[in-house]
Every structure is written in structure tokens, then in C-alpha cells.
Write a structure and sequence with these properties.
Layout: H1 8-31, H2 47-50, E1 53-58, E2 63-68, E3 73-79, E4 86-90, E5 95-99, E6 106-111, E7 116-122, E8 127-132, E9 138-143, E10 148-153, E11 158-164, E12 169-174, E13 180-185, E14 190-195, E15 200-206, E16 212-218, E17 224-230, E18 234-240, E19 245-251, E20 259-261, E21 267-271, E22 278-283, E23 288-294, E24 302-304, E25 310-314, E26 321-326, E27 331-337, E28 342-347, E29 360-364, E30 371-375
Antiparallel strand pairs: 1-2, 1-28, 2-3, 4-5, 5-6, 6-7, 8-9, 9-10, 10-11, 12-13, 13-14, 14-15, 16-17, 17-18, 18-19, 20-21, 21-22, 22-23, 24-25, 25-26, 26-27, 29-30
Amino acid sequence: MPARDPQEGTRRRFVGRLRAVLAAAAFVASTAAAPAAAAPQPQQQDDASASDRAYVANATARTVSFLDTDDRTVTHTVAVPSGAADVGVSRQRHRAYVTGGSGSRTVSVVDTVRARVIRTIRVGDRPEGIAVSRDGRRAYVTNADSGTVSVIDTRSDRVVRTLRVGTFPKGVAVSPDGRRVYVANLLSGSVSVIDAFPGRVAATVPLGTGTAAYDVAVSPDGTLAYVSTGNGTDYVSVLDTRAATVLDAVPIEAGAESLAVAPDGTSVYVTSGFGNDKVSVIDTEIGVVARTFRVPGGSEGLALGYEGRQLYVATGLGSRSAVYVDTETDRVMGSTAVGSGPMSVAVEVEPEPVSPRAGTDRHVHWKTGRKQATTR
């Protein structure tokens, strides 16, 4: 793991930069014109059409855009008056969950069939990140100013548990099997590991002196967690989830903000954020950034589509587009105009991990890339 700068001043510069961006988002959102009304309600839709849909949270406009990713068009725009900082999707229940961000204490529940907000759920102060379990039954919300995570039962749309984590929790991710939840604590420079059942913080992993943790993503086999961090220089820290320890930290010269992991675990995509326009791609076989590419307008939130073949990137404050990238060539395939300030994107159906052969478990091991098969 590269040496960390222990100086508090460096950390403060990074945190100050982030706070400036967050403050700008809150200010613009508070002064924006009234959001557009929701589009007319569509007819009942089947799962086939839903699998080709993505959702973009537009922070400045306070709306959510529904994207048809095949036609690359916005099919609906739903106003979310309480704010739109991040979005997660429960495909099984046809719901999108939208965090309110700065100045809010609620999560809005959007019916993705009728394209409208059907209720709000009260959580902690400043709900920022959200992650929905693969089975769609739980949503986990980071409450930045409360230092907590709210656990939502999506069947009843009620908070069933509130867990104390680190200072200013930001990003959150659920393991593929739904048993563990990982929380990036921005101002604590740590990751909280939650045992989803029964629901408790099982471990806290420090990432290094003066580190600020922003986002987190989990490998398809659940053995690794990747955390975007910074202390004046940006890294992606690599955690062994079984031992709850840091294995490595990969320097990211272009900047490190939001993360997505390829379905086969061989690549990690990292947006530069903070008004920059690059995406870095970490090759997990060699443990370094293998390549970067530019996204017109900026790079903030991101999500991978069907089989990981396409990457969707929200372009951030000062912009109003979602960009499509072919992951085989890193080529920008096009963009779609959405609401102002797109900061987050989620897909209706997440790409499935690579299927193991019968009777074996297969992983991509950090810095080897070898797919080892072990008989059960």
C-alpha cells in the first residue's frame, strides 16, 4: 500500500474541496426554478422493457429522468421536491428510491411503472448514498449529518433499523449475496462493515491517516471491496472483505469519486468527479490504472448495464446529460439530455456476476487475475 500523507492540512484541503462541491450543489438546488411536473402516467410495463431502463438523479433540477437505454431517450421525468442526490432501484417491486441530500431528512419512493412519487420515508439528517440489495428487499441509506445508516424494508417502505457508523457516511454498497453492507465514512477515513442479518456493525476498517472515503463497490464474488479515497492525492483502496483488512491502494491521477465493478471482476471504473471529465479503468490483474477516457461534460455517478457491455455516466453539476460508453472500446457512443445537475445513475437490472461452473467457486484474485477453481 502506498505511503499516506499524515499531514492534517492535506486532508483538510481534500475535504474542503469536497465540501465546496456539496455546498454548491445545495445552493444551486435551493435556488433552482420549480421542477418540471411529472410526465403522464404510462401503462403497465413488463420486465423486458424494464431491463432496458436506467434512472438519473438530477440534483439541481430535483428530478429523476427515466432513460430507455436502447433508444437513448428520456421516457419520463418525475419531480422530487425533497431533493435528488442519489438513486437506487428495486426491480422486483418496481420502485426507485431517491435520497434528498443536503437540507433533507427523507427518501422519496418513485413508482417506476406509474412514474410518480408515491410516498416519502423519514430517515436521518442529509441522506446521501443509497444501495438496494440484489433481491430488492432492503435499501440502505447513509445519513451524512447523523452519522447513521437507515435500513429500509422495501415491502413496507419503513425504516426497520438505524445503525451508527462513522463520521459523514457517504457511499454504500451491498454484497452480491446481501449479507454484508459496506459504508464509506468520508470524514472518518474508514469503512463500516455491516452484518445485514441480524443488522449490526461487525467491523470498522481504517484506510490510513488523513484519508477521506467517498464511495464503495464490491467485487462480484464478494471477496473484495473497492473504496475511492483521498488525502490530497486520490486512491482506490482495496479491502479483503473476509479479513476486513486493506490489501492495497491504487493511485488515481485523474481523481477518484464514484465506482463500478465489471461483472467478471477484472475491471473497476472510477469517475474523476469534482467537475473533471475522466474515467479511469483499473485492471485488477496487475493492480494499476490500465487506461483512462474522457466523458463530454464531466464524470460523476456511473452504472454498468446489461452484462457490463455499456457504462452510463452522469455528467454532474453545470451539465445536463447522461453519456453512454462502450466498455469494450471505451468509446463514447452518445448522450441523452436529462435534468440539470445529474449526479447519480442506477440501472433497473444490474449485470449478473460471471456464473461459476457446477461444483466450483471462481474468483478473480487481486493482482493475479487468475480465475482459480476450487472444488467444494
